[in-house]
Amino acid sequence: MDDRDLSTKKEKAGKRNLAAVILTQFLSAFSLNFVNIFLPFYIFRVSPYSQRETLLWVGAIVGLTTVFTALASPLWGALTHRYSPKMLYMRGMFTHSLMFFFMAFTTNLHMLFALRVVQGIFGGVSTAGMILISSGSKKEKQASNMGMFQAALTMGPLLGPPLGTFAAALLGYRNGFLAGAAFLFTAFIFAQIYVIDMPPLPKPVKKTGKRVLDRRIMIAWIVCFVAQIQLSFLPSVLPNVFKGFSMDEPTALKFAGLVVMAYTATAALGQFVWTRLARRFGVLRMIMFLLVMGLAFQALLALTRGIIDFTVVRMIQTGFAAGAIPLIISLFLDNPSGSTVGILNASRFTGMAVGPMLATAVVAFSSLGNLYLIISAITLLASLSFRYLFSPNKVSSES
Q: What is the pTM of this model?
């Protein structure tokens, strides 16, 4: 076999591996959102406590999982320097599947909380998926491949919730949990067969100028965190949004799912499109463009007067904001460090946890318009810090 045939064979294997990782990540995200949508209803069904106490249990069981995922993500990234990323990736999927299986036969809220904590800790193994993507990609394709990976993560919340509620209503909660476990176990088997194994990452070399590098990671983390807040804040205050548009509750419930699906679709599309256009216009320039446009349309939400224009503006805003996250992560993938990728991955989960809490806290004491402007202001500050620290002069002086 000559060098050209060998190169072609490696390229085809790389594409198959990329498709396998993206598909298994989609199945994982889909399964988690498939179950999470009916989990609060299940908690109310089995809870022996009062309405108020049960609400507190819902917050703990549903919300704290993401917090544990954010805390564990850097650890899973660091473990890729000691263990095979594929092995870690598969362990995560298998554990999630096992937890859903146990949930199907669990009615004790303390046990349900413990199972969700385990899920949260193992949720950070998506970092290993990022490592599998970045290490198997050519430098010029790292940003676009990371965009496809992030789009797979975004498509899970798009398709999982409506199918999850339908399955729970049709098949019952127990069979809903078992269906989620089956989807994840399918992803586990698929990864075992098709994802290409790779050795642990080499241990990162300590460099001089560590303080500058740490500042860059910190600012990148903050910008990803703020972008994720833009993506995740809205569902917690959607009832207030519809009330502001004078919509009655039955109509609001019908529109809520459509609104969330619409802007989640544009978020996934944005992650796919902008990461490809970045090859032509440059990654840093594209990131700044997306941040500026995202905060501008975030502020425009305060000027909307009806559900249609609100939804259109929200769809455009998430299309811009979502595209910035994979591009920022791609800046650190030339010589990937598992801990660095894990830290940046944790920013997504932290944003998912903080977004709803920030939104409800602001709306409780102020207004929706002020919430939109506060998030825009936070994004502006993060964008200016990013622009300063990642300016061409700064980047070239570090290399």
A: 0.74
Length of the chain: 399
Is residue 376 within 8 A of residue 299, CB to CB? The reply is yes
CATH class of 208-399: mainly alpha
CA–CA distances in Å: residue 225 to residues 101, 297, 387:
32, 18, 16
Q: Is 287:386 a contact under the CB 8 Å cutoff?
A: yes
Q: Read off the pLDDT of residues 140-178 as tens digits, 9 standing for 90 and up.
A: 788 788 888 888 887 887 788 778 878 888 898 999 999
> What's the CATH code, domain 1-195?
1.20.1250.20
Q: Where are the domains of the chain?
A: 1-195, 208-399
State phi, psi for 342 to the nearest 5 degrees: -65, -40
Q: Among 228, 345, 322, which residue's Cα sits nearest to residue 270?
A: 322
* Interval 337-348: pLDDT, tens: 677 888 888 888
**Nearest-angstrom CA–CA distance, 94 and 101:** 11
Quote the CA–CA distance of 332 and 205 in Å, as a whole number.
14
